[in-house]
Amino acid sequence: MARVPKILGVIGPKGGVGKTTISANLAIALTRAGANVVAMDLDLGSANLHVVFGLRNVRHTLDDFLVNKVASLDAVVMDTAVPGLKLIAGGNVPGIASLPYQRKVKLLRHLRKLDCDYLLLDLAAGVTNNVVDFALIAQKSLLVTTPDVPSLMSLYSFLKTSVYRRLQLLFRSSGDARLLALLENAGDAEAHPELKTMADFFTQAALIDPELAERGAKVLARFDPLILVNRVKTASDMKAGRAISNLMDQFLGLHRGEILSIREDAAVGAAAARMQPALLSAPDCGFALDMRKLAGALGAASE
Ligand SMILES: Nc1ncnc2c1ncn2[C@@H]1O[C@H](COP(=O)(O)OP(=O)(O)OP(=O)(O)O)[C@@H](O)[C@H]1O
Ligand SMILES: [Mg+2]
Q1: Which domains does the chain have, with CATH numbers?
Q2: 21 C-beta closer than 6 A to ligand 1
Q3: What is the pLDDT of residues 58-76, one digit of tens each?
Q4: Is the N end or the C end of the chain the one with fewer CB atoms within 10 Å?
């Protein structure tokens, strides 16, 4: 039977926090641990994952598949210089950043058929429908933030949106207007302080429809994002992720968030200037060590 790829979404609502850098280098770390990997640029509109690999002239991009220029996704999968690693480059067709829903469904169907162990999605910044929908299909969300407050706040907002979206989809498909209305109220904390936390929400929801409330709680219990605090320089930077996981625990009912920190490393910028991933040009740098640790945490075998 064909293997089904484990889909990892690399998400960071704030721009420039390191999503593309981590996608490229983690992809290499996973291949070095023996896995077959496809890294895919889903930053539709300002794609640059191929640039990190030093590839300037790309024959086919994901856009060619999305606009039906090529019939199969295989036609846009490119080899890289790294054994075991393939790439799907993004294009820059105007307007593609907000993909119609049917196109996303078609893309998803084909993604699941890719022959690899891991499919890494390098997503765009922001909390657009594209990002939220693609994040939902990933089995594991890797949430990238830098230790500064604006980035941490964006991350928290993204998590909150994800939690509401997951519950909204469940309640919609179950056709329960009362729980949908309650959820909407919970989203407006100022008007509804009695629904400030997800625990408050579930207490109320259980009074309305205990069985559906229970299913909602299970949906959240399965959501186990991994928070990556990138560009860590000091001991206090390392604590930044803790603040978010406390908020997740207290307000969003997400008790399974894990945190890993990735250090700031001059080798990353030096590698980028040479259009090479740091894992290739400086395989023993601190950042490379952190990438290998991350690959291990994601279940890849150690070298
Ligand atoms: N751990 C690190 N140490 C040093 N520099 C880093 C590190 N991580 C990322 N950078 C640098 O930060 C910059 C932004 O990184 P990157 O392009 O990966 O972010 P991004 O989140 O993909 O951005 P965008 O939101 O625009 O897609 C790059 O110049 C990269 O070299
Ligand atoms: Mg990027």
Answers
A1: 6-143+265-297 (3.40.50.300), 146-260 (no CATH)
A2: yes
A3: 888 998 888 888 988 999 9
A4: N
